[in-house]
Amino acid sequence: VQxxxxxxxxxxxxxxxxxxxxxxxxxxxxxxxxxGLVGDGTTISKSSPIQLGTSSWSSVYANVSTSVxxxxxxxxxxxxxxxxxxxxxxxxxxxxxxxxVQIGTLNNTSxxxxxxxxxxxxxxxxxxxxxxxxxxxxxNLGLSPAATANSSSPxxxxxxxxxxxTK
Length: 167
What we know:
The chain contains no helices and 12 strands. By secondary structure, it is an all-beta fold. A hairpin with a 4-residue loop joins strand 2 and strand 3 (27-31).
């Protein structure tokens, strides 16, 4: 089914949810919303696209089924979704969020790229360092050989830097 008649720049989908960015920077979302993944401040599922706020967005990254990350043209990163309990929203809490909350502000960190997985995520900051946060019981975050605790705030992954990783 065609979604609207506008020009789109990006589309991204999680397990239960979908997101699209228009050329004018507006973001639209739809899908199963019992944990707030649509990002409209509710937990009511949406069968057709709804616009998320009035902000301009530059990218959106949905993981498998637990959280969504989006960037704005000014470099800020925002997150929302229903698995805050694992710390994967990167806002320093373990609270679920049904509308976008700015992340990365705890360390004055801006990310140029985000990669999201099931219960965790990673990002590359503006100076090229790699950060990780979220679920870590299987050493998913790569923080240290002994670290298995979940991380609700970003932590630098060893000595990895932009020269060590690629998109």
